[in-house]
Amino acid sequence: MGTFSYLATDGTAKTIRGTMEAGAERDVVAWLQGSGYFPIQVERADTTPAKATTPTLALLRRRVSQDDLILFTTQLATLTEAGLELDRTLSILIELEAGRPLERILRDVLREVRGGLSFADSLAKHPRVFSRHYVNMVRAGEAGGALEPVLRRLSAFLEGAKEVRDFVVSAMIYPTILLTVGGIAVAILLYFVIPRFAKIFAEAGQALPASTRLLMAASAAFTGSWWLWLGGLAAAVVLAQALVQTEGGRRQWDAWRLRLPILGRLALETEVARLCRTLGSLLQSGVPILQALSIVKETMGNRVLEESLVRVQDGVRRGEGVAGPLRATGLFPSLATHMITVGEETGRLEEMLLKVAEAYEARIRSTVKRLVALFEPAMILFLAAIVGFIVLSMLQAVFSLSELPG
Known about the structure:
This protein is mainly alpha-helical. It is 77% helix and 6% strand.
């Protein structure tokens, strides 16, 4: 048992605060819901001193984390469901975010909303926090009068994306450390160890094996002009980023990504899952199909697929439905188009779109897990091959010296 503090609201837009003894947070939530309240925030009261440092740390990092955004979206959905007006809802959330990075942003949003701007347009002024997908989903919820269910779906979408990202980050910690340590070890060998042996071999005047000569040349290039290689790499990265920022460069980059052997398929399935999830949610919220497609087009992360949706919109205008134009683009997987066809034929398009999204999201998680599981041994083999080449090259040179006549 522990003491929990809570903040909740009722159907009359009245907020209440209090504490209660319970075994877990979910018990407090269940009690509040059973009493007709909408829980906004529940936390252990005995952890308040430790959490007092949170605002200071948040101010130091000056960045809204994904956890902050998920919590904000969930609380916003709860307050909207309780029937509170938007400005009142934002005022409560500003109070909850006091001293944190999101507070300043919410104050700007509240000021814009009170000035007559729509909620979605107010959020769009902060693209670093609220993505195009987020803003367009909110815009659709406002247009269809179904903001609360859209926010619930947004919260679930963000939580799912965070789960996958956290898994990848945690799984990549060990390979990243391994790659860093291995890279430092190889650099030390090339910069300090190999040059010393090169002097010994040069003084001996013996012909060296081809692998040893290659290693010596690599060491000389690294020690003599490492700054040039590093500067060239940095310049290449900057140039590539500048090219991707252009419309033509971005399209070529996105087209190339889709042609990659394994990662291209993963990128395509990710976009298909996002398309179906967003489109299905919008249609469930009562947004017309053409408007929903326009919103979905803005949320796509690939220019090639985004342009293909223009042709899909034209097909829908001509009465061809969604599945046929999608299939005609030649870009979308046949499984997705077949399932969407079934949804159109049975009059359950929204439900089938969400099922397609779930199916591809499960495939994405499975693919990512397999790729991460394969990356670690592949990295070990790669580093072992490099170190093994260095060791064998040096041993061959040493053996060749030992064969010199005395």
